[in-house]
Amino acid sequence: MPGLVIVGTQWGDEGKGKITDLLAGDASAIVRFQGGNNAGHTIVRHGEEYKFHLIPSGILHADKYCVIGNGVVVDPKVLLEEIEGLRKADISTANLRISSNAHLIMPYHILLDTADELKLGKLSIGTTRRGIGPAYADKALRVGIRVQDLLDEKILRKKIMAALESKQQAIRMLSVRRRKLQKEGEPSDDELPDDRLDLHSITEAYLSYGHRLEPYIADTAKLCWAELDAGRKVIFEGAQAALLDLDHGTYPFVTSSNPIAGAACVGAGVGPTDIDEVWGIVKAYTTRVGSGPFPTELHDEISEYMTERGHEFGTTTGRRRRCGWLDLVALKYAVRLNRTSALAMTKLDVLAGLETLKVAVRYRSREGAVLEDFPYHQSILHNVTPEYVDLPGFGDEITGCRDQKDLPAEALDYIRFISDFVGVPIALVGVGPGHDQNVWISAG
Ligand code: IMP
Question: For FRET with 175, which of 84, 206, 331, 407 sits at 20 to 30 Å CA-CA?
Fold first, then answer.
């Protein structure tokens, strides 16, 4: 049962793609199990930079299945663009498989998501505006359209018609509010998505996507079973991260799927006993894009330092990421939620040159209570003050280190303090974006 799950332990952008790429060496399949093209992986290989939003990072390994599982929401237009980009870069997509049960992102999902974000709805989450939330909502409402529907014109047309019907009222409301907002001078015209939705053109476009995607559509759960039953290693690659989890994250400032390890089973169609390892990926500091609580966020020259050195701008939307110190209260929570067996720490090199490294070890509530654990009530989290332990920084650049003994003692102390605090070994440390810029850390 050699299933290995890789998940983010913060608010995403921990560098999961790079670690997946690294651990994929002896795997036979890499499977995405949730999220959609709200994710963004950058992998640097032989000096070339590859960016993916939907296709699992494993695509660079021609000898492995690269699977988009049933739990993913697929924008077929984006997927075809990625396939085309890979073709141009001479990277084979012959091993790509897409679950016939995965749900599709439709133009009206993007429209509704964008409208919400432009405050035509009530609350701004700071979503990626890729239609993720509305697509998962339709799935739960049982009016979603699945990848398999692309292969049957009659069914596709019928389902789009039904889905559009249920959106008409929302779209009409949107037009009215849009006109009202325009009168008030905000937001500007070109920010608003086109709200003319036409059954015929959507159906035609999606049929043509289906035609082009057909060679990749498969029963991907069965594929996973075959690999696992033959004793071959399957990697389940999470997108986003624990604190963006729909159930366990900082709701409502979360994504609309479950990026924690338990969801790999649902989103790929395997059982819990198929999983025997869970790797959590943690950045050496914390970042977050979009709205929502972030107790250790900084607004000073140190956050500038992190942004500049860490190139903290979103792969998907280009938004500047909010930066702050590593939050061990939140990390301990994520470690337990995922029951991680090991951690990989990324971007430790970004912290080189800082005199002191702070890590949050507890929170204090507005009323003065000491909180050792991640608070279960959102209002408390919004008002906590983190309490830090100061650890000595390391002055020298570490991007050239490849062995544990090359790392400065202070860097090793930082790593040990964190792994001791959360009770899980940090087995691997990233010291730069390159495929080879890593240091394996031995136990003890
Ligand atoms: P959505 O997933 O587009 O609905 O956005 C919901 C929240 O999740 C927003 O705060 C996004 O910024 C955040 N989010 C979604 N995907 C990612 C990601 O891959 N990295 C970091 N944040 C993400």
Answer: 206
Domains of the chain: 3-96+219-440 (3.90.170.10), 103-215 (1.10.300.10)
Distance 127 CA to ligand 1 centre (A): 5
DSSP string, 122-187: S------SSSHHHHHHHHHHT---BGGGGG-HHHHHHHHHHHHHHHHHHHHHHHHHHHHHHHTT-S
By CB neighbour count within 10 A (0-12 exposed, 13-18 middle, 19+ buried), where does 297 fall? middle
* Residues labelled as active-site residues: 13, 41
CA distances from 305 to 5, 17, 85, 116, 308 (A): 32, 23, 33, 33, 5
Cα–Cα distances in angstroms (integers) from residue 155 to residues 24, 49, 158, in the given order? 38, 40, 5
pLDDT tens digits for 133-154?
999 999 999 999 999 999 999 9
What is the C-alpha to C-alpha distance for residues 288 and 10, in angstroms, rounded to an integer? 8
Measured between its terminal Cα atoms, the distance across the chain in Å is: 28
pLDDT per residue as tens digits for the range 246-290: 999 999 999 999 999 999 999 999 999 999 999 999 999 999 998
- Helix ranges, 244-291 (H): 263-268
CA distance 234 to 228: 7
Nearest residue (by CA) to ligand 1, atom 20, is 12
pLDDT of residue 443: 79
Ligand 1 centre distance from Cα of residue 227 (Å): 31
- pTM over cut 0.70: yes
* Interval between CA 59 and ligand 1 midpoint (Å): 23
Burial of 314 (0-12, 13-18, 19+ CB in 10 A): middle
Residue nearest to atom 11 of ligand 1 (CA): 127
DSSP 6: E
The answer to whether the CB of 241 falls within 8 A of the CB of 7 is yes
Alpha carbon distance 433, 168 (integer Å): 46
